[in-house]
Amino acid sequence: MQAEPIRQVVIVGGGTAGWMCAAVLARVLSPQQVAVTLIESKDIGTVGVGEATIPTLKDLNKLLGIDEAEFVRQTQGTFKLGIEFTDWGRLGDRYIHPFGGFGLDRPEVRFHQMWLKLRALSADAGDISDYNLSLVAARLNRFSPSGGKGLLATMRHAYHFDASLYGRYLRRFAEARGVNRLEGIVIGVEQRNDGFVSGVVLKDGRRVEGDLFVDCSGFRGLLIEGALKTGYVDWSHWLPCDRAFAVASENVGPLLPYTRAMADQAGWRWRIPLQHRMGNGYVYSSQYLDDDTARARLLATLEGRPLAEPHLLKFKGGHRRRMWEKNVVAIGLAGGFIEPLESTGIHLIQMGVARLATLFPDRGFEPALIEEFNRQSTVEYEQIRDFIILHYKATQRDDTAFWRRCRDMDIPDSLQQKLELFRTSGRIFRYKDELFAENSWLAVMLGQRIVPRSYDPVADSIPVDHMSRAIVELRAGILKAAESMPEHAAFIRSNCQADTVDL
């Protein structure tokens, strides 16, 4: 006999996680059957400096029926074709991890395998970066929307936007579809005899009951950890950075269509260009750098005048041992945190919400649903973790104790296997629903000087002269396609320019 359906969903916490969850649930659930309430307080702020995303956010926008131009306009957004990494392999190194594919694969062999073969023969293969349209366009500061046929079909893009404005945008969307917002601070959690949460108590004495609770309370994990004590899987031995200063500054120079990640003394600094300002931050290890020095370093390297005091965040890389326990589901920082190096924060929120929608329970809370949610979540976190560790491990820097520690550290077996496979013959395999595709691994490994000793022998089935002609034509075609695009800032002015704001 089927259990009673969920009637009341209570989301504890707003910000990006809370309002993204509210927006999706409002879209996929019937407001006549399921009431969604979100509790947040103006007294508990969010860090709305600047947020970088990956292309999967386009899937969410499509689900919600959000118009891209209006979304970018309302969030002071810009477009993102990838991430530029400087000083990661060695001091002076620079490469871009782009969205979209490298070259054009053949049915029997990957493009980069043909490139590796020509390179081994000392043929005119050029640099691998010449064969990615998103990358070449980013390098030229050009932008055109993803899609189309031929080479244009290889492009992908994401966004930069103001995180505070994004939260407000989603709030308007959710409230227009029936989500009820309560202003208040949660000070207590009430539980039944079996440990299930029955309600939360607000500072003003109000009590809010629910069937299903979504914990979007940030690092505190007010429900998932504060009440249910699920524990935490600590990855700080692989992800040594545990703090970040964030600050907004005036936007100077060209409006670039990519994020910057600049390796520094004991971590790395980010630049996220928005229409009205620049988002900046310094992610670092407190074991190797004190807060005052990190703050000073960030301010000293800004390209424009700071618009506020830097805000300090403290975190620990890892995730809750169980991200769904009893009738509480943790989304966003409440569930876990992998540092922002590859802009996966919003993706993890998005996937957590999508997973909840797919496995949405009744009041019986079948264990199989909960276990599958936790299994998928754990696998996803571990796969992203490995890709982030790669950036630190694949360094030849020895100029500071921090980088020597990263270079020499042990790594998970799953990552070690990927590295050994690539070093032997350039092969990369994507496992099931793994987020980062082969092209992402290729960009970072080659960008940080991991060069395969050989290539896939199947590439020998293609005549060298044919391969050489095709690769030269492809390189020229990609450059021509990129040069035909408008400048990034010009595209924004013509299509999605935001209203001016007072800074």
Characterise this structure:
By secondary structure, the protein is an alpha+beta fold. It has a domain at 8-77 and 161-236 and 317-379: FAD/NAD(P)-binding domain (3-Layer(bba) Sandwich). The protein is 34% helix and 19% strand. It is built from 14 helices and 22 strands. The protein has helices spanning 15-28, 57-64, 68-74, 111-120, 133-139, 163-175, 291-300, 345-358, 367-393, 401-408, 413-425, 438-447, 464-483, 488-495; strands at 8-12, 35-40, 51-52, 78-80, 82-86, 94-98, 158-161, 180-183, 186-191, 197-202, 207-209, 212-215, 232-234, 243-249, 259-264, 267-273, 278-284, 311-314, 318-320, 324-325, 328-330, 336-337. The chain has a 7-stranded mixed β-sheet. Helix 1 (15-28) links the parallel strand 1 and strand 2. The chain starts with 7 loop residues before the first strand and ends in an 8-residue tail after the last helix.
What's the short version?
This protein has 503 residues and is α+β, with helices and mostly antiparallel strands. The protein has helices at residues 15-28, 57-64, 68-74, 111-120, 133-139, 163-175, 291-300, 345-358, 367-393, 401-408, 413-425, 438-447, 464-483, 488-495, and strands at residues 8-12, 35-40, 51-52, 78-80, 82-86, 94-98, 158-161, 180-183, 186-191, 197-202, 207-209, 212-215, 232-234, 243-249, 259-264, 267-273, 278-284, 311-314, 318-320, 324-325, 328-330, 336-337. The protein has a domain at 8-77 and 161-236 and 317-379: FAD/NAD(P)-binding domain, CATH 3.50.50.60.
